[in-house]
Amino acid sequence: MATPAAGGTLPTPEEQSPPAPSHNVAVFFHGFFKVVSIVWYWICTIVSDSFVVNFVVCIVLLALDFWTTKNITGRLLVGLRWWNEANDTGSAWRFETLPEGVRTILPREKRFFWLAILLAAGHWILACVFCLFGASSYIIVAIMGLVFNGSNLWGYFKCSREAQADLQGYINSTSNSIVQGAIKQKLSQAASRV
């Protein structure tokens, strides 16, 4: 039982609540499978001359990353979940966000989650571009990496109202600065003619 400090009062239950638990194992595996699949993609021809072996290992690593991100780290690190339901009439995407106050999300874990997803998707876009210019013959692996990582990025983006609001704010500020720049340019051109 806590005793009040001299001349003080007992802390309220909100003040006594323990800090939110960190999910170090989830953070590790969220980054690990992304890094390992990317590294394997670039060094696989050094390790093995067999396209089949390299393809299978890379796809398995990408699948492990996809599954871990979709089913574990999304829920633990950012409180988001998405899935696709298929039935006789077609399929539908479902998006779920933990309500405020159900669980505290640590800002560093949230930043790491989004940064890792964005960097991995960006890598696979660049890998596809490199393949198109002949830098690698593994274009099917790069496309699969983009599909797996792009699906997670799209699913979690659709779940996160905060990410959507951030993107909308960025688009608004960028478009405003472009419009303001164009107006300033037109005004300076008009003033120079006078």
Write a structural description.
- By secondary structure, this protein is mostly helical.
- The protein has one domain (22-159).
- It is 70% helix and 8% strand.
- It contains six helices and two strands, in the order αααββααα.
- The protein has helices at 13-16, 24-47, 51-78, 107-132, 139-159, 161-193, and strands at residues 80-87, 90-97.
- Strands 1-2 form a two-stranded antiparallel sheet.
- A hairpin with a 2-residue loop joins β1 and β2.
- It is extended, with a radius of gyration of 24 Å.
- The termini are far apart.
- The mean pLDDT is 81.
- The chain crosses the membrane at residues 39-67, 112-132, 138-157.
- Belongs to the TVP23 family.
- InterPro entries: TVP23-like.
- It is found in: Golgi apparatus membrane; Membrane.
- One of its GO terms (cellular component) is Golgi membrane.
Keywords for this entry:
single chain, 194 residues, mainly alpha, two-stranded antiparallel sheet, 2 strands, extended, transmembrane, transmembrane helix, golgi apparatus, membrane, Golgi apparatus membrane protein TVP23
List the topology elements.
Elements: H1 13-16, H2 24-47, H3 51-78, E1 80-87, E2 90-97, H4 107-132, H5 139-159, H6 161-193
Helix pairs in contact: 2-3, 2-4, 3-5, 4-5
Largest sheet report: 2 strands, antiparallel
Number of domains: 1
Query: What's the tally of helices?
Result: 6
Structural class: mainly alpha
Q: Helix proportion of residues, in percent? A: over 70%
Could you say which overall geometry the principal axes of the C-alpha atoms support? Answer: extended
Strand-and-helix sequence, N→C?
HHHEEHHH
Strand line-up in the sheet with most strands: 1-2
Distance between the termini: 81 Å
In round numbers, the mean pLDDT is: 81
Uncertain stretches = none
The counted number of beta strands is 2
> What integer value in Å does the Rg equal?
24 Å
Quaternary: single chain
The amount of beta strand, in percent, is 5-15%
